[in-house]
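A further point concerns the way the authors explain their paired sequence and structure data. Nothing conveys this as quickly as seeing an actual entry. An entry of this sort, consisting of the sequence and the corresponding backbone structure tokens, reads as follows:
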Amino acid sequence: MWYNNILETIGNTPLVRLNRVTKSLKGTVLAKIETTNPGNSIKDRMALKMIQDAEAAGHLRPGGTIIEGTSGNTGMGLAIVAAIRGYRCVFTTTDKQSKEKIDALRAFGAEVIVCPTHVAPDDPRSYYSVSSRLEKEIPNAWKPNQYDNLSNAQAHYEQTGPEIWAQTEGSITHLVVGVGTGGTISGSTRYLKEQNPNIQIWGIDSYGSVFKKYKDTGIFDKNEIYPYITEGIGEDFLPKNVDFSLIDLFEKVTDKDAALMTRDLARKEGIFAGNSAGAAVAGLLQLGNRLKPSDVVVVIFHDHGSRYMGKMYNDDWLRERGFLKEEKLTAKSILERRERQQMITADVDQSISETFKAMKSLHISQIPVTQKGMVIGKVTESDILHALLENQSLRSSPVASIVTTPFPFVDLNTPIDNISSLINKDVQAVLVEDEAGQINIITQYDIINAISGI
């Protein structure tokens, strides 16, 4: 079997159970993995639907130009459809969006205009206003307007909702969705509530967005609006695609919690998803006490992690914003990161041959030498090799005859940089006394292990 073009591969995305990040929750939590769409996001669905409906209505004609304000994913979907159907694309976006998203749009031949984030929607510099101006200036242009174009929600009514219902065999009790344009949550919900009006719909919002307060109070409060980092969810206006009557509640999630959960999805579930997926799961955890063991929760994973490599998946970016705790590794933390182990030593009266056999059986290349329980020196494989090359009869001699200067001692609070500076080709380890008074050895391997987290 084959497809006639890439557009026929849109939809029918998998539903995957989450296990580790949701282990504290009752019930079953399933992720709807929209990254398997050709543009790696759920926006492919509504991009195709909006273009189809515009063509049918005569709004988009052959050789036309598609102009849209987009955070990246909708633009990607539109660009893919445009590539197949022969349209030109001009997109406006904000300087908040990741470089990866902008580069991806340009890869499909789209022209991208980057506009400032921290301006009002009606400001002539905003990406909404710039796209509207270009629609008027460019001949044969059409602006999908994903926020107010109800073909957006209709795509999910026709596709996403029915897929979820079929994949859960009608057992879904909760749908959790990060809300941006509102098309995904409103369209999917309209279908699902027609099947079972008791399904709970939880919308995930960001601090700095107006959705939650408007749902709770009916008041559009401009004081709720302020800059935030999380991409793909929240707005500073009310899109027509957000049907508040269908959404049971909104939950706000901080930028930090959204970013860290996004990383956890990759590290603990093996799912390389975008920022809105992290926000949705973080919001679900905040609402977790509302769940029962019999519940079946579906969470929409909108897009792919590759679009956030310079942000949520970049340690330096996270540290700059205070999202990632800067942990200074010390001798103590190195010991805590490895399994507890007893330090192997050789007594001064032990023969060189016995010492080498012990080192070989334990797969170690150096060993502290003790006298009456006190560390008085060390012996390495090189020390033994050099001694035997000079005089093989030394095999039965006490190891004390070839002992060298002991490994340096450090205290528990010695930083890893200082420990590393002590280790070289002549000094392969350091010693540290732990809080229980036991002597421990820290090798170069332990340092590498602690740094890499392996």
Observations:
- The mean pLDDT is 91.
- Residues 116 and 321 are 20 Å apart (CA to CA).
- The chain has 16 helices and 16 strands.
